[in-house]
Amino acid sequence: MEERGQRSNRRLVLVACPYQGHITPMLNLASLLHSKGFSIVIAHTQFNHPHPSGFPNFTFAPIPNCLPKDFLSSGDAAAIFASLNTNCEGPLRQLLSDMMAQDEATESKISCVIYDTLMYCADAAAHYMKLPRMALRTSSIGTQLIFSELPWLRREGYFPPKDHSSKDPVPGAYPLRCKDLPLFNGDPEPMMRVIAMMLDIKTSSAILWNTVDCLEKQLSDQVQKKCHVPFFSLGPLHKVAPASPTSILEEETDCLLWLDKQANNSVIYVSLGSLASMDEREFAETAWGLANSGQPFLWAVRPGSVRGSEWIELLPEGFKEAIGDTGRVVRWAPQKDVLAHRAVGGFWTHCGWNSTLESISEGVPMICRPCFMDQNVNARYLCHVWRVGLELEGDLDQKEIEQAVRRLMAGEEGKEMRLRAAAFKDQIELSIKKSGSSHTAIEELVNLIISL
Ligand code: UDX
Predict the structure, then answer these.
(1) Number of domains the chain contains
(2) Per the similarity annotation, which family is this (predicted)?
(3) Interface pTM (ipTM) of the complex?
């Protein structure tokens, strides 16, 4: 068996997808593999790039000229991902070829290319260079399962659903209802093509998953049966990796001092993640719902996430006076520390997969308000299967927000959800300890990489 210290001449090239919810698990995986002795190269786009300063031991390799600027502001996710992959393949191939040429002189070698499945062009680039490759999936297995059913559901007329609020079950897709399908705006065909490319990973040596058996073991067995390559549930990656700074935006850490002054489990943390947005009316309803709940709150309002404004200029008149010191609004929170803080007792979330894992890992129950794509699927699992979240449905309304906050933070239902979430927290802690499911999967993955 190869000694850990001998692995530094084995380079792993990790190809990141340029969005926060994707960069975070990829950097966590990189930190984890670095801690196992491998050398790490992060191949990244020049926009939304990770900050190298937090990772002095990694090499950062920008992929040049991958997307025209005006494309990014179009907001058309399917077109952005399709172009990103078309434009990155050539430069990525060149990058790999340059690294391999350098390696000849230094006795190191690229052991494997690990790519975010949304950067599926890396599979083709690595295949061309005859390099082994593995795919990292940054969403849940539940999402993958429904993604793979979309072509059939589309042919049968179930997707996209005619009524986006319908609670009718989707045939063969328990526990999902029509409203839980991964919806996106406009014509579904372009995004379905991107999803089909993401799922088509026939030539990879393995699939790595940011999930954990105690949440998705049954689903992972289901997927593994259909999958011809080894499959590793390694997560939650933010828990198994040595702490690493993964935020693209600057974190406002002084909110932690404010949390220090609050009672245990008293604060509701609110965040929509890095992409979702709301309009002015929804923003005002949220503000008053939080204020009138009487519950202390920490609200992360990402600049640009309220449509038509830079940041919080559209907060309703009288709001700041009404909340006094019972609420804090920040641009970007140190979310993992916030969720781990003893004062935080609930999380109003858009149910992005990272936020979902981060909250469950800390035993924090949720108000689930999904916005699009996999968030709908995650919300359904949170509320119906794992039963650690309550759903906030329909148009945002301050009275309903107020009630939901009270139900979660002070009601019997919230208490039960908190107990279930705490039990998951314990199970996750066991999974990442020696002999736990994620710990074992990581050891197996390291052995597989060495064998390539
Ligand atoms: C996107 C998709 O929307 C999501 O559904 C998918 O699963 C991953 O890609 P995003 O919307 O940003 O991600 O949500 P999420 O997956 O929850 O990731 C957001 C990340 O930003 C989390 O790791 C969270 O800790 C971090 N964050 C968010 C902060 O650090 N501070 C904040 O104020 C808000």
Answers:
(1) 2
(2) Belongs to the UDP-glycosyltransferase family.
(3) 0.98
